[in-house]
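Subject: Sanity check before I submit

Could someone independently write out the structure tokens for this chain? I want to compare against mine line by line before I put it in a report. The sequence has 373 residues.
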Amino acid sequence: MESTSSVLYRKRPSYLQGALFVLAVLSFIGFVTSAAILSHKFGNVLLFQISGLIYGIAAILYITYFIFKNEKVSKLATLTLFTGWVIQSTAFFIRGIEAYQMGIFHPPWTNLYESLMFFPWLATTVYLYIEREYKTKAIGAFFVPVVAFLVIWGHKFNTDISPLMPALRSYWLYIHVLASFAGYAGFTVAFGASLAYLIKENAEKDVKVKPIYVIGFIVSLALLIPLGYTVLTGAKDIKTMILGIIFIILLLTFLYFATYVLKPLGRALPSRNLLSEITLKAVTISFPIWTASIILGGAWANEAWGSYWSWDPKENWALIVWLFFAAYIHGRTIGKWKGTKASWIVVAGFIMLLICYFGVNLYFPGLHSYATE
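---
Independent answer below. Compare away.
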């Protein structure tokens, strides 16, 4: 029988192994970056496309693991997701070098294409940490397909490296926008955990799935796909904006029915306590970062435009997102909102986040309209 000390010794983290792992990843990024720059045969866009394909494979593996609970598939899913993350990281390095060589270096989040690459990358970073911290991979079946979609779909936008407009040539761009995206990533993880909580709750309570729920789920899903495509790619006019409002209502309807129809999947999800803890931790970490991004944005706006707050559409929706998650933290702190109610607050907050990220950039002209370029 092994002694307790030997067991504990084996469980201690190996800093040497960690250092070697980081060195191997950095060496890979350096090698691929050097090869790309010297050969001129492939650039950042191709690598972003490859990472999107690998994320798609990872999504299939996570869903397969979720259904069959095969540990080998589980490890392969995480390895595939991490491989996509490394390749996407390499693409950012190459894009930065290409921008530098063109004399217009800037961080990779200044237009819609770059943000649709950076946001999934950052969200994946947060997810990989949570997966390792909580030893649960079930959320990956819900999270990774979204990441794959965003990276693949992002390539419909202009992929060129463009010079920054004068208002963006500031050190504020690095700290304000980075803080915003960190908030986006954390709130997205909180949304995934909240939706999983609602499904798990219905599974544990063995709520009866009425035929109307199944019909509503199928109809809303069938309408969401073409409507979503129209809203995201259609003309930026009042008609498409109205369709966007309908899309948001349909999305909430779909999520509501999904928590019932996907009830059988709840057996494979972690406990409600763990999902609630993940949600709370993700929000409590992201909320002060989001708050900082609003404050930093105000300071930048005062420097660039002479006013801390201009009631710009982006500013207004950022405030609305802040209020939703502030309400969630307040409700959880005083014990008024927990369980189902708290989870739906996070889901609603995430819908507001989507409007702030996509809707404002695409449909509301303002001081942040540069993001659509």
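---
OP: Matches mine. For the report I'm noting this point. Confidence is low (pLDDT under 50) at residues 1-12.
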